[in-house]
Structure formats: C-alpha cells, structure tokens
Amino acid sequence: MSHALSFERWQQVRQRSLAIAAPLSAEDCMAQSMPDASPIKWQLAHTTWFFETFILEQYEKNFQPFEAAFRILFNSYYNGIGEKHPRPQRGLLTRPSLDVVMAYRQNVDERIALSHERHKNDAQFHTLLELGLQHEQQHQELMLTDIKHLLSCNPLYPALYATPATLTSILTAPQAVETLPTLEWQDYEACLFEMGHEGKDFCFDNETPRHRHFVEPFQLSVRLVSNAEYLAFIRDDGYRNPALWLAEGWDWLRSQAIEHPLYWRQDEQQEWHEFTLHGIQKLNPQQAANHLSFYEASAYASWAGARLPTEAEWEYATQLHEQGLPLTQLFDHCWQWTSSSYSPYPGFAAASGAIGEYNGKFMVNQYVLRGSSAFTPAGHSRSSYRNFFPASARWQLTGLRLARSLTDDE
Asked: Nearest Cα to 401, choosing from 340, 334, 347?
C-alpha cells in the first residue's frame, strides 16, 4: 500500500466513526449501559487519543496535547502511559461535552495530516498509523454493539436506523437466505499444517508467529447454527438441562435467570422477536444465531451431539476453503466461538513499550473467536484474525459453528 493510499484510507476510517455516531443524540453518546460497554463519546475520544498519544507525541515537533487531562480520561488500559479513568465510570464523564470531543478529533486529524506530510518516508510512522486505523476499526464494531446494548435497555426499544437498508452505508450486512440448506458436514484429514499470519499485510501481534500445528481428523459444519435450530434447543429445555452445561456456565445462567439469547423477546402470543439496530423484528429462522456466550454455544453443541471447533481446526478448514473445499458463512455473519483458550502462539513476544500492551496481557481467562461479524468493517477480517472474549460475553455478534471428532478409519 502506498503512503498516499494509506493516508486516504486513514481519512475514510475516521469518517466512518462519525457516520456511525451521526444518528445519535448527545444523550445517546454519553450513556453507558454496563461496565463492559463504553459510551460512544468516550470511544470517539479514545480512538483520537490513540493517534495523539502514540503518533503525535512521538513525531510532532514541540508537541502539546489538546487537553492534558485527556491523557487520563481516554486512556483505556495502557499502564505504561499512566493513570486511567475507571472503565465502569466512563458514562459519568458528562464533561468534556460531545462538541469538545468533536473538536478534539478535528484538531488531531489536522495535526496527523501535517505529520504525514513531514514523515512520508518513515516506515515506523506508517506502521503506527496503520495500527491506529485497525484499532479504530475495532472500536467501530464496538460502537455498534455497545449502542445496540444501550438501546435494548430502553423499554421503547428505539431503532437506531429506520430500516435494514439504511445500514448499508455503515456495514455490509450478510445477504438474506430464503431457504436454509440442511446442515451438512465437511471431513478433514489429520494434518500437520502452518497457522498464523503469513505475508506482509497488516496483522495484530497475537496472530504471530506462524507456526506448525497438528490436527486430528475432524468434521466441521458447512454453515453456522441458525435461529431455527437454536430455538429447537430452547424448546427442548436446553436452558433447563444441567447435563448440557459446563458447571460454571450452569451457575452463570442460574444466577442471572437466563433462558434465551440476549436480544430475543416473546410477545403476548408467545411469538419470538429479536431486538436489532432497526428496532424489534420478528425472529428470522434462517439467520445465524448470534449474541451467544461461550457457555450457550458449548451447551448447544453438546445438545447437538457435537462440540466447538478448536481455533486450529477453524483456520485449517478456512485455508482449505480458500483452495476450493466448501464452507459458508465464514465471515460477515457473526464471530464464531472456538474451544481454544486465548493464549500466545509458540515464540510470541510482545512489542516493547506501552504499545506492547495491545494484546499480550489479555491472554488469560478468555476464549478465541474466529471469522468476523456483520458489524466488522469491510477489509478488517482475515483467516488468521484472533478475536477474544470471556466466556460470559454475549453483547458482541457471537455465534457458533459445530465440529465433530473423527477416528482415522472413518
């Protein structure tokens, strides 16, 4: 990618964040629905803070911050940078105002443009610029999932977008499926293969280094589990059968009285509906089931006489898919839980300094998800991408693909 194209893309990414926030009021942008979610205003500021802190502070002559207090207010988790405002209290930041945050974005954008002109031939500058772009794209997906959770807490169930069609300028929604094909299985032989990022295109550090991994014979479902299939699990008392659940998952659903996916609702006629970014909609049986926790995905897999794939199986199958073996819904529908704990690849080493805190320090008590979702920005997904969340998380677009083990003679 040329430097000119890189800067053009930087402008496009920055504008997309504003487009996501455009339908929101100042009140919408300030509210925080739960500790795991962040206000839109905070995210607009934090993504700007990233460019100011990791690029301008290093490259701008006679650097002066837009506002010194922002270094603490909009630091997410970088201990090497200094103090942080507590995450659960981001919704209490009525000041600075949304207007000031927008002015902050414009100020940093103008300064980045000047720095770009001065450092056109600096490879490290463009490496940091690209990381900042990828970081903002991650937050764009979080902005959509976080505002969806916030609006779902309102008993009016307000729509962020009037119709699904109005989403097309923000994301590429998966095509509707009129008739869902029967769930079929693809066989994979045992293999020693290489996994992890390959090539010179961007990747996050947790996708490296590329290394060898052995997989036993297995099967993978050609498509994702649908709403109709997940509804059958519910109707078969799947949420009331402890034999299907991991012990921690059973305690989780019992303590929170969980009986169905996060955004599913039943009306007075016992018909199922789902809250979406365009309001309450009748549940689409053909759509991939989403907003499932790892616990729910694991329980469904057990009920179906299957299991969740490992991340190595998922990546191996995806590599073969690129060579012609059939798989559908790998990307653009929902992130797919794997049974793999989020841990470093053999030989992984975090970068030095605060930027090295980006991924490595979260490699504990989380599970890997693969693929991408309908909220993932175009061009942001790839087969080696390692998303990760704790087992109870379900406000993200997370679903499941089934796997089964095979013996060598099957």
From this structure: 334
